[in-house]
Amino acid sequence: MVDAIDRAELFYHERVSVDASEKPTYRLTIVAHEPYPFLLGVLLRGRAIPNRLKLYDGRFDGVITVKEWDDFRTLADQIDERFGKFELQSVNQVETTGEPLGSGQLGRVLRNELSQEQLSVLRTAHSMGYFDVPRGATADDLATELDIAQSTLSERLRLAEKQLFELVFSGGPSPSAEADAE
């Protein structure tokens, strides 16, 4: 697919869709050798964070983060002027932007915090449908696939889940949790 885009080469790819019944979705990292003014260059020069850009049917659809509304308006005007039509679909205002969720940063952090055994158990459980409703695989199926005892699988799975929950909930109570406590 990337071969069909002039002056672009595939750097990295990974499948991100989890449901086998859906059309597969992939996250691609490409190196684009585009002359200025290419859309990505305009976004970056406008101090925007491109969280997601999708090219289909000859148009880009994307999600970007900017610090100030005026920065966004300037950027929207530049995109409209240089590339034709610009249509704003929605706006979300947040106090801090942090790391974009679609960036893969969360997955990289979590993968660095888990042992190889925990990652292997979680990856296998996920791919075999253990977490699906209804389950696509039993604990015995996972243990057989991994060639480990069911008790070992159970321990690794519980430790991995505990580690994940500690990472997710270790930042202290959320504002909604504090409001619920009052």
Description:
The protein is α+β, with helices and mostly antiparallel strands and 182 residues long. It has helices at 39-45, 69-83, 105-113, 116-128, 139-146, 150-169, 175-181, and strands at residues 8-15, 26-32, 49-56, 59-65. Strands 1-2 form a two-stranded antiparallel sheet. Strands 3-4 form a two-stranded antiparallel ribbon. The model is unreliable at 172-182 (pLDDT under 50).
Features:
two-stranded antiparallel sheet; single chain; alpha+beta
Tell me the span between the first and last alpha carbons: 54 Å
Number of helices: 7
Q: Please count the beta strands (DSSP E, at least 2 residues each).
A: 4
Catalogue the unreliable spans: 172-182
Sheet-strand content, in percent, reads: 15-25%
Write the layout of secondary structure elements.
Blueprint: E1 8-15, E2 26-32, H1 39-45, E3 49-56, E4 59-65, H2 69-83, H3 105-113, H4 116-128, H5 139-146, H6 150-169, H7 175-181
Antiparallel strand pairs: 1-2, 3-4
